[in-house]
């Protein structure tokens, strides 16, 4: 039987929703049918660390800010291994170990996520309890990272917000943030997690991740997107100041048909930069740069 916990805002209308979580997936949805914010925290486990974390989750509200905290499980730790040489490889493991045997790197995980950036000749990623085995060979990731809902030990947070709300998401581990709907502002900081706005319409965004991808559907008023190992993409950018930077990853930005004036700065060390309707736009001042990568303007 699943373990659940739930919270409801004390007031109607848009709020500032804050959440702190170490691992799991936070899915936030906003639509006009929602008048009061609700939060559901869930795991498929009926006992164990994930169930204890869900039960211990707490919420406090001050004025129009609702803050939810999901405590870390006992073994929820993050480790990083850096390999030198011609390529940079970063492995971040939640609930797992990293071993090197005869030049091959083995990552064994009990639960959680494994993130890889760069290339490595032989890498084997597996789960010691359940799940499929993932293998990276000849510098190619055959199976990528990302959460799969419903697995043992996984924590799922479902949030319903009125349109125009703000989000402040913080994870010191591998939690992922998924967004759907209209938001005034989004702030997100995560170590090894992705931020994905599938059908999102966001005013301003400030997003920082160490090893994770960021994808936003529509950004109306600019912001800051920053990653060390991750791809950063905005499907529709409507103007104002925008700064995007990553060390190992690609950057893709598509400007809206109509934009407001703004400065656009796109920087990466190892990755490609692709823009559409940005260069040549009379309202946008573009600055791009990459050390090892291609720059394409469409």
Please outline the helices and strands.
Elements: E1 3-8, E2 16-21, E3 25-30, E4 38-43, H1 49-56, E5 58-62, E6 65-70, E7 78-83, E8 89-94, E9 96-101, E10 104-109, E11 114-117, E12 122-127, E13 134-137, E14 140-141, E15 155-161, E16 165-171, E17 176-190, E18 195-211, E19 214-219, E20 223-229, E21 232-239, E22 242-248, E23 251-260, E24 262-270, E25 273-276, E26 284-292, E27 295-297
Parallel strand pairs: 2-6, 2-16, 3-15, 3-17, 10-12, 16-17, 17-18, 18-19, 18-20, 19-21, 20-22, 21-23, 22-24, 23-25, 24-26, 25-27
Antiparallel strand pairs: 1-4, 4-15, 5-6, 7-8, 8-11, 9-10, 12-13, 13-14
Structure commentary:
A hairpin with a 2-residue loop joins strand 9 (96-101) and strand 10 (104-109). The model is unreliable at 77-150 (pLDDT under 50). 3% of the residues lie in helices and 62% in strands. It starts with a strand and ends with a strand. It has one helix at residues 49-56; strands spanning 3-8, 16-21, 25-30, 38-43, 58-62, 65-70, 78-83, 89-94, 96-101, 104-109, 114-117, 122-127, 134-137, 140-141, 155-161, 165-171, 176-190, 195-211, 214-219, 223-229, 232-239, 242-248, 251-260, 262-270, 273-276, 284-292, 295-297. The protein has a 19-stranded mixed β-sheet that branches. The chain has a five-stranded mixed β-sheet with strand order 9-10-12-13-14, with no helix packed on it. It has a three-stranded antiparallel β-sheet with strand order 7-8-11, with no helix packed on it. The protein has two domains: 3-71 and 152-297, 3 Solenoid (Pectate Lyase C-like); 78-141, no CATH class. With 298 residues, the protein is mainly β.
């Amino acid at each position: 039987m699943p373990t659940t916990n739930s919270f409801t805002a004390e007031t109607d209308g848009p709020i500032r929703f804050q959440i702190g979580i170490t691992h799991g997936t936070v899915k936030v949805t906003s639509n006009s049918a929602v008048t009061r914010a609700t939060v559901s925290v869930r795991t498929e486990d009926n006992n164990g660390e994930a169930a204890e974390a869900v039960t211990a989750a707490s919420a406090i509200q001050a004025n129009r800010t609702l803050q939810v905290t999901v405590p870390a499980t006992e073994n929820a730790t993050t480790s990083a291994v850096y390999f030198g040489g011609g390529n940079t490889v970063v492995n971040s493991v939640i609930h797992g170990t990293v071993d090197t045997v005869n030049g091959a790197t083995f990552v064994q995980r009990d639960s959680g996520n494994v993130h890889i950036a760069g290339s490595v000749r032989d890498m084997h990623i597996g789960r010691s309890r359940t799940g499929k085995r993932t293998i990276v060979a000849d510098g190619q990731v055959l199976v990528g990272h990302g959460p799969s809902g419903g697995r043992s030990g996984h924590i799922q947070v479902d949030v319903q917000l009125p349109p125009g709300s703000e989000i402040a998401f913080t994870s010191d581990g591998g939690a992922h943030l998924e967004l759907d709907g209209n938001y005034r502002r989004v702030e997100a900081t995560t170590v090894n997690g992705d931020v994905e706005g599938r059908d999102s319409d966001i005013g301003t965004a400030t997003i920082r991740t160490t090893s994770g991808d960021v994808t936003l559907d529509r950004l109306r008023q600019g912001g800051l997107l920053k990653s060390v190992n991750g791809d950063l993409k905005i499907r529709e950018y409507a103007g104002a100041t925008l700064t995007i930077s990553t060390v190992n990853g690609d950057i893709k930005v598509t400007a809206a048909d109509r934009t407001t004036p703004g400065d656009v700065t796109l920087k990466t060390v190892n990755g490609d930069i692709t823009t559409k309707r940005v260069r040549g736009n009379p309202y946008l001042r573009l600055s791009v740069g990459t050390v090892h990568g291609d720059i394409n303007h469409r």
